[in-house]
Specification:
There is one protein chain. The protein is mainly β. The chain is 10% helix and 42% strand. It is built from one helix and four strands; from the N terminus they run αββββ. β3 and β4 form a beta hairpin.
Amino acid sequence: MVGKIEQLASDPFGASNVKKLTGREGYRLRVGDWRVIYEVHGDRLVILVLAVAPRGGAYK
């Protein structure tokens, strides 16, 4: 999972298994049954990971 999060540094918007969230700010990265919810802040790439949780609990 750490490797997938590190891949976000090279392309936080176009990496595979990434979608923009609807109804709230941020994006989600799917890694198997796990979801990483994150936001990108500013002109400098700062990826703020908000949650890492199984599929059902990640969006609460």
